[in-house]
């Protein structure tokens, strides 16, 4: 990271933490240069960058100011009751009916699970694909099916190393996206009827997978900023024969919470005491806005208890369907299960991503992607403050492309979903994130698409619908 | 098909059926031209083609003769006891230890499950991939994940139509190879503990999948030429609460049996009476040596009882991992299950194959592939006749790249496997094809690789090991 980028990050941090409030003047170039001991040109470059990211704006003859979107007029959602709920899962039909209804490409995609595909370097990936296919021997095409592309495996292991996780190469199982990895992990450590601790709210696919495998959910409440409630979890582990935990320790979907390192370590120690394996779903790992990637729980893993699942679908190559799991002590069983179900992810897709990771400029792309997502988050937050009713609460994650809104208690988000859809706007209603159909007055909105007039109008329409409840 | 190809096919049929015996002289050009009412140049072209396919050879000044490999010195294997066996399945460890041991690229790959990757048009596919990626809009990359590539779906439906199967486009679910399709089908129509009728011998992955899903196998004997024993099946359906059948009606793995059309119809009517769904595993459909593709059982399906699974892995694009199922009345449930487990096969791989099917010359490639496989089959048969002990029996499938050998009763094929592997030769021992570990004196050998001196030497070594039992 260059000096001006580092300096820009310092200022961004001040804005994020609220030290520099919306509308406030950013230190002048001369002042900043003196205070922080950097050259004026470094300050200039940093301010340009921050302007580019939508965090500050220039006013004629007055210097730079923190932009409105960086303020936080809406409060954080409240954490639910701090008790674990155990339940059968039966939410799939609801999820499919919601997902099925948002396919129309003319719908404003606030309900989508993916960021805009225009944010990804698809032409560059296509070149990597061509390059990779030229280098792929016919023998490799068959051989790579069982073991996975060796270059890809090395590249992934390398990224773990850089972010402070030591990994045995043998631990890595390449999968058809993270979703397959998560399925395989869960099947490896559970049998039908078993209890699995999940988050509340949880990613809806988690609920669907539990339902499919006839597993029972123990819902552990999640704090919108600090993540899983460890006390409730500890209590549940004490009382119940929980066979596995499926948690997102970073940028939790849908809340966006990221647990602190300290808390992650405590979570690991708790699970270690009970010898309950953790399936760590970390598919948004690369989408942190800050400069340093948060360490996963996996980084504290001493004895292979954590299965850490990642993917390129949200950060590089949607549709390529390449994910992985660092499977710890379960890796071989996971690998065998994969050989019996899908055999292998597409070999060309693996090879293309391996080539891109080596030559494509992944980190440069990621920086641009993060800037865009943070900028769009600001726009959606500002727009919500303008249009949504009094009493609306919202998260403000430090990464990713989801906001979680808690509307006033009388709002029925399934109804909201239907009314909005009739106006050509999709959203993800709260109840699809819960095995017990909670979060009725909540919704997840996607800001992964470039913000434009249509987005602004859509927020206005949502605001008007919300006012009718 | 051109006139000379049609004529060549007539002669090939005479050789296959034994009307023209090995060593026998093929009709002279003049004679053939007169008898069959075709021009001499057509006969010439046909004979060149047959020579190319290794079916006939020219002798100086004496014309063409049927080559030795086309004779059949070894008898057909005997069909097992005509009784169904019901059993738990526990064969996975054995299968993995066999598969794991044949990874070394220097091993003679008689144990491989794939034909030589050199037989596939990989460079042409790479061009289709480049073309497809240029045409792929970012929106499509995300949209195609749920529904599958629409061009690919149309092309697959078209091939069904050409081979006489009418299909609703909605029935088609694109999957990560046929293996995923088969898994999804089975999960859709069964629950743990259910009975599933399978073949004996059966493809070992079938056994692994049953084991994984905790299903019980009812093994129905397969005749090496005529396929599944319908009487035993009828009896089993009468007596037992069988929930599904998983059969290969064409080029059954490992025997290579292809049921007659009449028998397929009878099978369908039988299942229809009992309303038991059929999972029809038809991954070798394109590898028939004869000119006309055999119709699948699916072609008789009146009410969506048959789930017909296919793949490009064995005929075009190994490693791309693109298969499908025409799921009949179960299609929607299969599709939902897929959305919950792997979401989608790789979008670029789908697009590349769609482009190839439209512009790449699939039928031309298939013709060449079939010729090569038939030629290699002849070579392996001839070599077995030279080297394997008295009393060895062998199948002679009308397609594909597997031969099933039944050795004298005292041969232990697991031991044979170990001894051969020590000499750098792999093979697939009989017991991995049975839930009850039968077929101890049998083995499946792959002739999907170009026949060369190394192959010949390997057969000789196998023969010497066999003689020691």
TrEMBL record, chains A, B:
Entry's Gene Ontology molecular function annotations: DNA binding; DNA-binding transcription factor activity; pyridoxal phosphate binding; transaminase activity
Residues forming coiled coils: none
Protein name (Swiss-Prot/TrEMBL): PLP-dependent aminotransferase family protein
Keywords: Aminotransferase, DNA-binding, Pyridoxal phosphate, Transcription, Transcription regulation, Transferase
Entries under Pfam families matching the protein: Aminotran_1_2, GntR
Domain HTH gntR-type: residue ranges: 1-69
Keyword Hydrolase: no
Family: In the C-terminal section; belongs to the class-I pyridoxal-phosphate-dependent aminotransferase family.
InterPro entries linked to this entry: Aminotransferase_I/II_large, HTH_trans_reg/aminotransferase, PyrdxlP-dep_Trfase, PyrdxlP-dep_Trfase_major, PyrdxlP-dep_Trfase_small, Tscrpt_reg_HTH_GntR, WH-like_DNA-bd_sf, WH_DNA-bd_sf
Lineage: Bacteria, Pseudomonadati, Pseudomonadota, Gammaproteobacteria, Pseudomonadales
SUPFAM superfamilies for the chain: PLP-dependent transferases, Winged helix' DNA-binding domain
């Amino acid at each position: 990271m260059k000096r001006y980028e580092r300096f820009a990050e310092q200022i961004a941090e001040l804005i994020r933490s609220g030290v520099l409030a919306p509308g406030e003047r950013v230190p002048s170039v001369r002042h900043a240069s003196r205070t922080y001991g950097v050259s004026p040109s470094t300050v200039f470059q940093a301010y340009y960058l921050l302007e580019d990211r939508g965090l500050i704006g220039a006013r004629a003859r007055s210097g730079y100011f923190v932009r409105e979107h960086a303020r936080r007029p809406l409060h954080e959602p409240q954490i639910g009751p701090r008790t674990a709920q155990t339940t059968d899962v039966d939410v799939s039909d609801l999820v499919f009916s919601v997902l099925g209804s948002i396919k129309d490409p003319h719908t404003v995609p606030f309900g989508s699970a993916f960021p805009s595909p225009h944010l990804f370097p698809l032409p560059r990936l296509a070149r990597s694909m061509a390059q990779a296919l030229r280098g792929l021997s016919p023998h490799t095409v068959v051989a790579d099916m069982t073991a996975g592309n060796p270059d890809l495996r090395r590249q992934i292991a390398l990224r773990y190393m850089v972010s402070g996780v030591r990994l045995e190469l043998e631990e890595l199982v390449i999968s058809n996206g993270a979703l397959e990895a998560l399925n395989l992990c869960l099947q490896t450590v559970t049998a039908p009827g078993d209890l699995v601790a999940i988050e509340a709210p949880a990613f809806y696919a988690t609920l669907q997978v539990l339902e499919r495998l006839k597993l029972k959910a123990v819902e552990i409440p999640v704090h919108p900023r600090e993540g899983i409630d460890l006390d409730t979890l500890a209590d549940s582990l004490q009382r119940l024969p929980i066979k596995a935990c499926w948690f997102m320790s970073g940028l939790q979907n849908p809340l966006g919470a990221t647990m602190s390192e300290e808390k992650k370590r405590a979570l690991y120690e708790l699970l270690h005491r009970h010898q309950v394996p953790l399936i760590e779903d970390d598919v948004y790992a690369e989408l942190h806005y800050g400069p340093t990637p948060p360490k996963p729980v996996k980084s504290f893993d001493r004895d292979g208890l954590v299965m850490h699942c990642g993917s390129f679908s949200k950060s590089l190559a949607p549709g390529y369907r390449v994910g992985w799991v660092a499977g710890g002590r379960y890796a071989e069983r996971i690998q065998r299960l994969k050989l019996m179900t899908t055999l292998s992810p597409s070999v060309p897709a693996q090879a293309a991503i391996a080539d891109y990771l080596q030559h494509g400029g992944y980190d440069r792309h990621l920086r641009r992607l993060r800037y865009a997502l943070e900028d769009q988050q600001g726009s959606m937050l500002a727009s919500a403050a303008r249009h949504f009713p009094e009493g609306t609460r919202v998260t403000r994650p430090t990464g990713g492309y989801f906001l979680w809104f808690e509307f006033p208690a009388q709002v029925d988000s399934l109804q909201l979903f239907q009314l909005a859809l009739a106006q050509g706007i999709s959203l993800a209603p709260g109840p699809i994130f819960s095995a017990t159909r909670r979060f009725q007055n909540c919704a997840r909105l996607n800001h992964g698409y470039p913000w434009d007039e249509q987005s602004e109008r859509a927020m206005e329409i949502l605001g008007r619908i919300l006012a009718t409840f």
